[in-house]
Amino acid sequence: MAQNGNIVISTRNLAKDLPLGKTVVHALRGVDMDIYAGEIVGIVGPSGSGKSTLLGLIGGLDQPTSGTIMIDGVDISRMNEDQLTEIRNEKIGFIFQFFNLIPTLTALENVALPIQFARKPRFNPEKRAKELLEGLGLGDRMRHRPSELSGGQQQRVAIARALANDPPLLLADEPTGNLDQESGVMVLQALEDVRQRSGTTVVIVTHDHDLAQRSDRVLTLVDGQLAHSTVNA
Ligand SMILES: Nc1ncnc2c1ncn2[C@@H]1O[C@H](COP(=O)(O)OP(=O)(O)O)[C@@H](O)[C@H]1O
Ligand SMILES: [Mg+2]
pTM of the prediction? Predict the structure, then answer.
């Protein structure tokens, strides 16, 4: 499945400088990479190597210092904040280490929210949220609030939320970093199911070797540069 389809993410000579006091951190120093439709790609590397910076740029959360980023055939590298917001809403689902669910809302309401906020909603919010939560094994937890769910369940709610508007691209930064191993395996399984069902492309930043080994391909960042790309069996 890997690398047969279209390129969904492409970066060329991507660089990001971050100001640090009176100096500058070269967080990314010329990254060239292509990610194909339907791939699950792991991004690994030492702490501080630029993984989160790279994911944020791909996801339109930030703008590069130089270089280009193509998402789904569109160059987003010079877009302004409003244009990036639109790209994020249409094309990208994010999953974070600490779930970032809204504590006062139920699982169902958390997942329905991005559909209600979509500029051109494609789904009935409640119906879509129910289907997604059921698909992630949370059919009996829909009326629970985040504090009434385990970490693994909260992360699956966050996956459902990220999928709410059916984005072609799912980006996850350390999605199992705050979970025990068993919950981590379930979360990865959920991401594999999503790819299987919807053809979603999934990029996962992770420290977890097992998780990286189960992705189709592992990209290793060292010091803001791509050190190697390994295809898994
Ligand atoms: N907001 C920031 N301001 C200044 N430097 C930053 C900021 N965020 C990250 N950095 C620096 O950029 C580099 C890359 O960080 P990051 O992308 O978070 O790495 P990783 O996710 O691989 O741990 C590190 O040297 C980090 O200290
Ligand atoms: Mg990080």
Answer: 0.92
- State residue 5's pLDDT score: 73
Atom of ligand 1 nearest to the CA of 53: 17
Q: What's the domain count of the chain? A: 1
**Residue in 139, 216, 213, 127 with CA at minimum distance from that of residue 164:** 127
Count CB atoms within 10 A of the CB of residue 68.
15
Per the structure, the complete domain to which residue 154 belongs is given by: 7-231
Whether residue 101 lies inside any domain: the answer is yes
Q: Is residue 1 part of a domain?
A: no
Residue 2 lies in a domain: no
Is 41 contained in some domain? yes
**Angstrom distance (rounded) from CA 191 to CA 193:** 5
- pLDDT means per 10 residues, the chain with 233 residues, are 76 97 96 96 95 96 96 94 91 92 97 90 94 93 97 94 93 91 85 89 91 91 94 83
Which bound ligand lies closest to the C-alpha atom of 97? 2
